Amino acid sequence: MKIKNIILYSLLSSSVLLAASCRKFVEVDQYDKRTLKTTDDFRYLLNNKGNFESSYILPLITSDNIAAEVPTTASLAWGENYQRAYIWNDYFYVDNQQDVAWNNLYKQIYIANEILDGVMESQNGTTSQKLAVAAEARVHRAFAYFSLANQYAQVYDPTKAESQPGLPLLLKADLFENLSRVSLARIYEQMITDLSLATENLPNYPTFNYHPSKIAAYALLSRVYLTMRNFEEAGRYADLALALDPTVYNLEDYVSGSYPRLIDDKEVLLSKLSSGFIRGPINPELIALYKADDLRLKLFIGTDVNTYKGSVYIKPLFNNPYYYNSYVGLNSPEIILNRAEVYARQNNVAKVVELLNLLRKKRFAASKYIALSPTDISGDLLQSVVDERRREFVGTDLRWYDMRRLTLDGNYFKPVSRTLNGQTYTLTASSPRLIYPINQEVLTLNPEIGQNPR
Fold first, then answer.
1. What does the buried/exposed string (b/e) look like for 362-394 if buried means 16 or more CB atoms within 10 Å of the residue's CB?
2. Residue 190, CA distances (Å) to 87, 223, 263, 339 in order
3. Nearest-CA neighbor of 125 among 198, 44, 36, 40?
4. Which of 30, 48, 180, 205 is the most exposed place for a label (fewest CB within 10 A)?
């Protein structure tokens, strides 16, 4: 079996994982040299934000939230890697370039596996403390696998998932794990197992939002089941999360004041950050979905007349002018909109109206807010929720994931065309370009993984 070269990263950021490996691309200690002994050692590994918070970036540029044509100044600012992702190219990285997203996510899986392998036998901790650490590791691992599956694997189809190729499934911190892909169904089964076990030993809310909690696990379960098209379970877990009364800010309170920093943001249930920044330009069709008085348009979207020459996403800058990375991860509005989508698919007009208004009344000044009525959305309940998701999740990864799963819903996926350097490219519902290519650097070391169709 091949040495596990799948993870192209260094674990030097963790103070408890010491010494460099003698093998290139496998910079981890041998088991008998590790210093993870006490329960606190494993807790410190979880508390290191650098291990789990930085994630990926390409879903922000491959989705139709970005304009169909970008000026040369914007494409130059992006660089060639992002330009290739923008047109869903055969490959995104060249030569010895690393796929930061793949590396980050498998690094998180590896660290989660290290924790799960050892924490229950660790010293100087109570059983409840050990179970809590293990539960957090399971949530991080599930989030990483969901992100990988929705970038590097096919769109989950419940009628085909047992035969759809998934990903290498690594559940042990072992240098000799089998790297052949398991089925997509198996990947999702593992997410559900991890999250279901985790909920038993997590607090309802975290002390800091980069720690997993019960409400975050419920939110992620709702997202996973929504992607699996198991709408009953998606709704059930959204209800469990809603029962914990998640915070949704009234944006009117922040028109003339400071919006909370990420670490203080109560809407954020599990903090994850993009591994770089893509500001825009935002698709004018998306901007047109906002009402003029929508405070999301006022507070989180700005204009750049120089580099991007259009509307840009500025929420990360709202409270820190030097901070560009977008918030990905889990948040309170997603729970509401997941539940609304399930009701829309059940043709429950009254509940869809109730939930959309629950969110929207926090997105307008009280003097400008006009509640939706059933007649406003009865023409197409699902489209009304999809549109609200686009307004709420601009600047995040969720639109790309929604685009992928909506390919199984007929006309709810619209072909996306975009032009770069005078050439036009189109993404259709049946296109293999809805799946990211595996970096050649990974495949050279691990050919058994196999490239995705292009």
1. bbbeeeebeebeeeebeeebbebbbbbbbbbbb
2. 32, 14, 29, 23
3. 40
4. 30
User: What's the confidence (pLDDT) of residue 127?
Assistant: 98
- Provide the b/e sequence for 266-301 (b: ≥16 CB within 10 Å): ebbbbbbbbbbbbbbbbbeebbeebeeebbbbebbb
- The answer on pLDDT for 21 being more than 80 is no
HSE-up (13 A, CA, CB side) for residue 117? 15
Sign of the Cα torsion 360, 362, 364, 370 reads positive
Has residue 370 been placed in a domain? yes
Element (H, E) at 302: strand 301-304
**Phi first, then psi: what are they for 331, rounded to 5°?**
-145, 165
Pinpoint the alpha helices (H) of 243-331. Answer: 284-287, 295-299
Strand, coil or helix: what is 318?
coil
pLDDT higher than threshold 50 for residue 144: yes
Task: Please state whether the predicted TM-score (pTM) of the whole model is above 0.90.
Answer: yes
What is d(CA 205, CA 222) in angstroms, rounded to the nearest whole number? 17
Give percent of the chain with pLDDT exceeding 90. 80
Residues 390-415: what's their mean pLDDT?
96
Spatial contact of 19 and 104, defined as CB atoms under 8 Å apart: no
- With pLDDT > 70 as the criterion, what percentage of the chain qualifies? 91
- Residue 70 structural domain: 31-449
Q: Tell me, what CATH number does 108's domain have?
A: 1.25.40.390
pLDDT in tens, 82-114: 999 999 999 999 988 999 999 999 999 999 999
In this structure, are strands 301-304 and 310-313 parallel, antiparallel, or unpaired? Answer: antiparallel
Give the total number of structural domains in the chain.
Answer: 1
Residue 14 lies in a domain: no
As to burial, measured by CB atoms within 10 angstroms (0-12 exposed, 13-18 middle, 19+ buried), residue 343 is buried
Distance between CA 164 and CA 182 in Å, rounded? 9
E-strand ranges in 58-149 read: none
What one-letter code names the amino acid at 29? D
What pLDDT is attached to residue 323? 63
Q: How many residues comprise the chain?
A: 454
pLDDT number for residue 27: 38
The arithmetic mean of pLDDT across residues 292-304, rounded, is 94
Looking from the CA of 261 toward its CB, the CA atoms found within 13 Å total 8
